[in-house]
Amino acid sequence: MTSREINKSSIVDYLYTMSIKPERKMNGYYMYYSPIRPAEKTPSFKVSIGSNLWVDFGINEGGTLIDLILKLNPDYTVSKIVADFNKGIFSFHQLEGNNKLPIASKIKIIKTEPLRNCPGACTYLESRGIEFSKACDYVSGISYEMNGIVYRGIATKNINDGYNISSQNFKCATKQGVTFYSHNIGMSIIVTEGIMDLLSFIMLYPKQVGLHDLCVLNSVHNLAGIYHLLKNNNRIICFLDNDLAGDRATSLIENYSKANEISFFDYRRKYKGYKDLNDYLLGKPM
Q1: Residue 239 is inside which H or E element, if any?
Q2: What percent of the chain has pLDDT over 90?
Q3: Could you give the residue ranges of the DSSP H alpha helices within 73-189?
Q4: What mean pLDDT, rounded, does the chain reach?
Q5: Residue 93 three-state SS
Q6: CATH level 3 topology of 179-282
């Protein structure tokens, strides 16, 4: 692919690979919390669907997909982006594609610590309907530096030694991969799309905790990275999103289950009419 062809690739799809979803969908454009300025409280990052261009009103900058990748990844060059696209590293159009997805920005991890030492995370978790005490066994507090500014949030470490970081209005990964919690069951595994979905499962079904191994995709693009975790189980239970990407990922896992004679359960019918399990917990229908 040439740089011109790359710039025809969807900016919306690129953002989705980093779990960045629009806050508002308007006629012809989407509004996001800025991935460049994670501390903002009002969506000011616009993506025009027809022209496939972005603008960040907070810094009065904008441009093409390549311009955005360069802004989020200061160490990149245009030639490296073109090379990575042609290697498939940026193949975010394909659900089954390479899981080496771009990170949201150049991030320096300062420290991680037990969540119980980070009472400031309580407000964020409560806004998602999650009890602080129940989250402590599954997420950590994290301090990180980005663009010279220190931020704090919550994080999970994935099987590729990357951190999936989230805070109010911001999500990113230092390196993509799935997060796995083993309860040494080896018989049944719960699969969710994001950490908030897993924590919502724990809130909704507390008696089920400890009866299953637990897996968080962190992105549906990481699907290829979970099959080795699924193969030794007798049951696979999915709680993915009620959207097109969730449909496709659920279908692929179901096909894998059938091919390997593993029982499969799609629990999305339990929260039909809700975008995901966390929205169901919060009582926020689509």
Answers
A1: strand 235-239
A2: 50
A3: 78-87, 121-127, 132-135
A4: 85
A5: coil
A6: Dna Topoisomerase Vi A Subunit; Chain: A, domain 2 (3.40.1360)
Q: In what order do the strands lie in the sheet with 213-216?
A: 179-181, 213-216, 188-192, 235-239, 263-266
pLDDT surpasses 50 at 163:
yes
- Is residue 34 within 8 A of residue 45, CB to CB? The reply is yes
**Residue 239 pLDDT greater than 60, yes or no:** yes
Give the residue carrying structure tokens 């040494």. 184
pTM: 0.66
Give the integer Cα–Cα distance in Å for 242 and 246.
6
Lowest mean pLDDT among 9-18, 73-82, 99-108, 213-222: 99-108
Select the CATH number that applies to the domain covering 3-87 from these four: 3.90.580.10, 3.40.50.1820, 1.10.3720.10, 3.40.980.10: 3.90.580.10
The token pair at 125 is: 């978790």
Pairing, β 149-157 against β 163-167: antiparallel
